[in-house]
Amino acid sequence: MKKLLSIAVMLFAFATFASAQAEIKFDKVSINLGEFSESDPVQKCTFTFTNTGDQPLIINQAVASCGCTVPSYTKTPILPGKTGQIKVTYNGKGKFPGHFKKSITVRTNGKTEMTRLYVEGVMNEAKK
Fold first, then answer.
1. Which of these, 41, 42, 44, lies nearest to 126 by C-alpha position?
2. Could you give the angle at the alpha carbon of 35 between the alpha carbons of 73 and 119, nearest 5°?
3. Where are the beta strands (DSSP E) in 27-68?
4. Per DSSP, what are the bridge partners of residue 69?
5. How far is 40 from 91, CA to CA, in rounded Å?
6. Dihedral sign computed on CA atoms, order 3, 4, 6, 7
7. How many CA atoms lie within 13 A of 50 on its CB side?
């Protein structure tokens, strides 16, 4: 009987520990930069997120779909209830004018391990 009770207590403790986890929640997962000129090709935006879990959130990596899009992110652990940012710089220099849509893949230690963010816009040809 004592063994059964011990096993039940250990399973309960493990289940409680396993449910304690970080969780990332973004304010938005897509940002439209609108229209801009080829003569001003560098555009920036910021994605804000909150750790809605009960453990510190760590961003392991943020990787863009192409070299023209560069993400930078909060490197320190985000405590429960606190916010962090992923800043994205799009550089259209040398790219063809027109509509673009780039993705940033964010990997964390949270319950949701991977999230995709999107940046899009229209780069218009520079007037000559």
1. 41
2. 30
3. 30-37, 42-51, 59-64
4. 90
5. 9
6. positive
7. 5
Could you give the percent of the chain with pLDDT greater than 90? 80
Half-sphere exposure of 128 (CA within 13 A, CB side): 1
CB burial readout 66-91, b (16+ within 10 A) else e: eebbebebbeeebeeeeebebebebe
Q: What would the pLDDT profile of 88-115 be if each residue is shown by its tens digit? A: 999 999 999 999 999 999 999 999 999 9
* Rounded-to-integer distance, Cα 42 and Cα 52, Å: 32
Block residue for tokens 């391990």: 113
Give the H/E segment covering residue 17.
Answer: helix 2-19
Q: Which two tokens stand for residue 34?
A: 């609108």
Token pair in block for residue 33: 């930069």
- Structure tokens of 48? 């804000």
